[in-house]
Amino acid sequence: NNNAIQKFLIDGFPRNEDNLDGWEKRMNGKADVKLVLFFDCSEEVCLKRLTVRGETSGRSDDNLESIRKRFQTYRLQTLPILKKYEAQGLVRHIDATPPVNEVFAEVSKLFDKL
């Protein structure tokens, strides 16, 4: 059906300038970005959650050193991309510090409006 509305959620992308450039080149005129969802959560809370996850995840990068490197990469490469989307009025902030079911409820409310 050519009249069907298709919606996609793209998680964690674009993370840096190269990702954004590639997206804009390949998707220009093909995708209408309605919003950028940003989960606000302090580094302290993220560190606690990732440390707990690391106890059972089996992921080698769920350790203090790797987590801190990810935070640095985020500040240097991802935040500037977020600022570009904020300038376009596309960013919607969600407080990600409450329990997951409360965060999900807030996200659901936002998606219901689309």
Please render the helix and strand layout as text.
Elements: H1 17-27, E1 36-40, H2 43-57, H3 64-87, E2 91-95, H4 100-112
Parallel strand pairs: 1-2
Helix pairs in contact: 2-3
Descriptors:
two-stranded parallel sheet, 114 residues, mainly alpha
In short, what is this structure?
This protein is mainly α and 114 residues long.
Q: Please outline the major beta sheet.
A: 2 strands, parallel
Beta-strand fraction estimate: 5-15%
How does the helix and strand content classify structurally?
Answer: mainly alpha
Query: What's the tally of helices?
Result: 4
Can you give a write-up of this model?
Helix 2 (43-57) packs across helix 3 (64-87). The chain is mainly α and 114 residues long. The two termini are 20 Å apart. 55% of the residues lie in helices and 9% in strands.
